Structure formats: C-alpha cells, structure tokens
Amino acid sequence: MTDSDTVPAGTHIGHVHLKVADLDRAVGFYRDVMGFELKARLGNQAAFFSAGGYHHHIGLNTWESTNGAPPAPGTTGLYHYAINYPTRRDLAAALKRLLDQGWGIDGASDHGTHEALYMHDPDMNGMELAWDRDPSLWPRDDNGDVTFFRTSLDFAALLGELDDDTAAYLPRLAQYT
C-alpha cells in the first residue's frame, strides 16, 4: 500500500452521535454521572456534550428513537465506543465517579496497550472508558508488531492513582478480577 492508499496517521475518530429513548434521562447520565459539559440542547430532540470546550464529543438525539427499545442481542450495530482519558489518574477518577453515582460496570481488562472499563449507558449503548499506555510500552511480537492480550485489571493500582482512600470500592469490583 502507498501513502495515498492509507488514512493519514494524524486522523482520529471524531464525535459519536447516539439515538436515545429518553433525552432527559440520557442528559442526566452524560452530564451528572459521566461528567461531560452540556454544550447545547435542542428542546427534547437533541443534546451535545463536550470535554474541555470542544463543540461536541457526544451527541444524543431522539429523532428516530423516542421511547424506543435498545437493539436486541444478536443484531448488528454499535458494539461500543471508547472515551480515552489523558491520564491513568483520570480513568481512576471516572471509575470512582461512576461508583459514587451508583453506576456499575460490565467488565474491565488490561490489554497491554491500554486499560479499559466496559459499561453501558441508560439506552444500553456500549461504552469503553480507557487510558492508553505510551506506545513505547506496548507489547510487541518478534517482528515489532503490536500484540494485544486480556488480563484482569488491577483495580487497587488504578484507584491508587487517586489521593482518596479507595479501599472501600474494591469489594464492589471483585467480580471483575
């Protein structure tokens, strides 16, 4: 492949726009539980959220989904989208915020390249909350190609990034280790 056949290295995935059944419920989740800033709202039809003042990272709408049901298992569609935090401490703070708000996770893994928490929003959209290790630390095979693996996430070490006493959270996370 030539450079003209591939996507440029600086390319990134932009925002995600999700269909939701109940906009008020979804706004409450993304603002109050996840901590995103509500940038704009179009009545009961759409809302847009940001991290750090960007126009929007997450868009929500009810244009085709008011009072709709989540997709049934075994159907095609979005598996999950990822929210990548800039530091491991930020991922730890996100986990603590979720637990403090009474929101659980569906799983967690250390993939070598990154640490990930898996969950869903109120409309059952799959979410991955992640922190990427520096690429120089990524596991590689004998040819230098990146390899992935899946091991249990060390919750004690992750939450240890915070200054708070987080030992009380560990029993709630034991099922994922």
List the helices and strands and how they pair.
Layout lengths: L15 E4 L3 H11 L3 E6 L3 E5 L7 E4 L19 E5 L2 H13 L6 E4 L3 E7 L5 E7 L22 H5 L10 H4 L4
Parallel strand pairs: 1-4, 5-8
Antiparallel strand pairs: 2-3, 3-4, 6-7, 7-8
Count helical runs. 4
Number of strands: 8
End-to-end separation in angstroms reads 41 Å
The Cα radius of gyration reads 18 Å
Shape: globular
Structural category: alpha/beta
Report the sheet-strand fraction: 15-25%
Mean pLDDT: 93
The secondary-structure element order is EHEEEEHEEEHH
Strand order of the largest sheet: 1-4-3-2
Unreliable spans? none
Largest sheet: 4 strands, mixed
Helical fraction? 10-25%
Report on the architecture of this protein:
This protein has a four-stranded mixed sheet with strand order 1-4-3-2, with helices on one face. Strands 5-8-7-6 form a four-stranded mixed sheet. β6 (107-110) and β7 form a beta hairpin. It has four helices and eight strands. The protein starts with 15 loop residues before the first strand and ends with a helix. It is globular, with a radius of gyration of 18 Å. Helices cover 19% and strands 24% of the residues. The chain is of the alpha/beta class and 177 residues long.
